[in-house]
Amino acid sequence: MERYISTDILVEILLRLPPSSLRRARLVCRRWRDVVNKRTTEMQSRPRPLIWSGHVAYVVGDLSPESTGSLEELWRTSRLRHNDWYPQLVGTCNGLLCLCDNEKQSGGSLTVVNPATGETLPVPPLPCGDLFGRPLGWHAAYNFAYHPTTGKYKMVHVPCSYNRRYDFETVQLLTLGETTWRDVSPPAAGARCRLSAGIVSIDGVTHWVKVGGDTRIVSFDLDAECFASTAMSLPRLSAKHGAYHLTEVHGRLASSACLTCGFWSRGAGVGATGTSSKKPSRAHISSTGIASS
User: Fold this and answer.
1) In 3-state terms, what secondary structure has residue 45?
2) Residues 290, 280: contact at Cβ < 8 Å?
3) Helices and strands (H, E) in the chain, number of each type
4) Which pLDDT tens digit goes with each residue over 56-105?
5) Cβ proximity of 202 and 255 under 8 Å
6) Which of 20, 142, 163, 293 is deepest in the core (most CB within 10 A)?
7) How confident is the model at residue 199 (pLDDT cuts 50, 70, 90)?
8) HSE value, Cβ hemisphere, 13 Å, CA-based, for 227
9) pLDDT tens, 41-66?
10) pTM (predicted TM-score)
């Protein structure tokens, strides 16, 4: 490949890419991996892990083996006026926080925050009407996602039921910067989300565990805004293992239970599965660092 493009020119191109694109560029070939590792700031000065604790965003000051684990406060939200409730974290993308105030209105009040600059962007409210009653965990049904190809950020509200009181039958989508939510109907088999299992977006695809019947993972393409033609099946759990919870491990979709962990490579259809007898640790640090700008 070097006969088509010199290393110096390749470096100049790579230096203009955001960190998320550089991580993908490392996968092209060995030469690109070596160039990213040795000639770009992506690997020389990696984004620092971002930690959200209640109402404060921190970054880890040093990840070296000699580090004492010092934290640097980056941003904090003010207390809400009623009952001292704090917003709940929906998710993080490229160092941005998405927060949901469950108390403010039906559907929750969403805000995207750049903790590095303090800038905030209110998200248009979910078109769900006035649902009266005590505040609910609205944040659990949202996902804050980024599509690496289009560069667009999207809010996803999954089909779900809140305590069997309020039912949402469609996927509702909003592209950050727009004002209107869009509805996408689920497949005939349904796609209602088991909220306790979590919602995970990886490489422009949002995944959640479907309620009812066999335990399956539903996948939704954020670019085409459609469901995958097949749903991935999860191994059956015995009663003592409890429920599944979805997460991301090194860019791959994973599910964890009490004593078993299974991994799936992202793909158009069903990925490979595997299990481990080790008990997985509970992640408490965001897998997305603060992107440089």
Assistant:
1) coil
2) no
3) 4, 22
4) 888 876 666 666 767 888 888 875 545 556 788 999 988 899 999 888 88
5) no
6) 142
7) very high
8) 23
9) 655 555 677 888 878 888 876 666 66
10) 0.71
Distance CA 198, CA 247 (A): 8
Q: Rg of the chain over CA atoms, in angstroms?
A: 20
Number of Cα atoms under 13 Å in the Cβ half of residue 43: 15
Q: What are 178's two structure tokens?
A: 């727009």
Tokens of 108: 């929750």
CA dihedral 143, 124, 47, 255 (to 10 degrees): 0
C-alpha 203/C-alpha 24 separation (Å) is 10
Q: Please state, in angstroms and rounded to a whole number, the distance separating the CA atoms of residues 154 and 85.
A: 26
Long-range contacts of 272-279 (CB under 8 A, 24+ apart): 273/235, 275/235
Are 273 and 262 within 8 A, CB to CB? yes
Q: 10 Å Cβ neighbour count for 52? A: 20
Please give the distance of CA 268 from its chain centroid, rounded to a whole number: 19
Cβ–Cβ < 8 Å for 19, 30: no
Q: 14-17: list long-range contacts, CB under 8 Å, 24+ apart.
A: 14/39, 14/40, 15/40, 15/41
Sign of CA dihedral 129, 135, 136, 140: positive
